[in-house]
């Protein structure tokens, strides 16, 4: 089983995805600090949205052996700097969330490209809310 740190903008769906992965009741709960849930480390979106907080991500990642960059398909903001993954000493993968809200495949392609440019070596596409494709990510993380 991998020990994964989730990183992504405020509201991109990190906590919802975590709840879906762990078969929990889906309930909105603002992540105020780093939270550990079994093998998953959930981080507040502020850590990636404010560059001066990157150092918190770097230190928290020392407890992880994979970093999961999470990008909502419905958020067109640039969140991850190019080659962001090089900051971490472990593998980095990506997840596009909110697949259920997508109206055009272009949105998925755009989000996927952001994650690839940040350095994600593979990208999953899921809906944390409906659970679509979450089993693929679960299998990867449980392996
Ligand atoms: N439609 C849809 N809404 C989602 C999805 N994932 C999260 N949300 C909603 O987006 C909001 C923020 O989700 P949350 O998981 O708290 O984001 P976090 O800040 O990254 O932890 C909540 O209202 C969620 O219900 C998804 O896959 N589909
Ligand atoms: Mg959260």
TrEMBL record:
GO molecular function terms listed in the Swiss-Prot or TrEMBL record: ATP binding
| Swiss-Prot/TrEMBL keywords | Nucleotide-binding
Domain of life of the organism encoding this protein: Bacteria
GO:BP terms for this protein? biogenic amine metabolic process
Instruction: Write out the coiled-coil annotation as residue ranges.
Output: none
As for family, the record states: Belongs to the EutP/PduV family.
NCBIfam families noted in UniProt: EutP
Instruction: Give the protein's recorded name.
Output: Ethanolamine utilization protein, EutP
